[in-house]
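Q: what does this look like with zinc ion bound?
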Amino acid sequence: MPNNSVALVDAAAKGSVYIENNGVGVFCLSCFLEEVGLTHGFTTRRGGVSPAPYDSLNLGLTRDDPPVNTDANFHRLCDAVGLEYNELALVNHEHGANVIRVDSSDGGRGIFRKPLPFSDGLVTNDPNVTLVTSHADCSAFFLYDRKTRSIGLAHAGWKGMISRIGQRLVERLNAEYGASPADIIAGVGPCICARCFEVDDSLAQRFAQEFNCPDIKNEGRPGKAYVSLEAAAVIQLVDAGVKVGNISLMHRCTFEEKENFYSYRRDGAYAGSMVAYMRLR
Ligand SMILES: [Zn+2]
């Protein structure tokens, strides 16, 4: 397959569906909604109790927003989308490419129990734990294999993306549970888009080389360039053996959609945090 990033992103941009319950809004991958064995989503900033600038569904525990607010927000999310608060396991991200296996004994880790070991990706085949990752421009990888009933969820900023955290997640589902990459359906969450993600030209060159794809970057101001994180996501999933037809991008920009999302690039220290979540049911 030619590594034409625009064609790959277009092929995978199947989109998302906005779902709101009790004022709490989340985006879901259209193709994942057809899977009856799965609950998943990516939160927006709607439906929480946090005041400005974290208004309102801030789920970032390291911000200057009192824990009583973020805790109330996690409870509101659970009530709205049908999750058990006691079963949430929050990734303890390190902006790398480590993936760890979790199970029901990890419920509450990173939320009200001690944090999980450092990693950026989680896998499980246990239906009594909910995988959770946090995001504020960084994308999310959602993986599901129907045959082995196993799932994976990862946080992917530019460091995780260029370290192929998505590919590592596919490999781990295969190693732990025997999931065949050709059977895996994969989703990619909202992120800062190719029109907004400006980086130093040297970093853009590294992306082009890593993914063997010159058009993954576009020229910007002198010394700068724009990089497509979505293209990097699709290429590494394809390299891992996932079929293009089984890959789906939410294709939404955290930087541009201020009404929906927090963005670290846009709001800096005043950015709250969204989460991605996924569980078997
Ligand atoms: Zn954008």
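The chain has a mean pLDDT of 95. Residues 217 and 227 are 4 Å apart (CA to CA).
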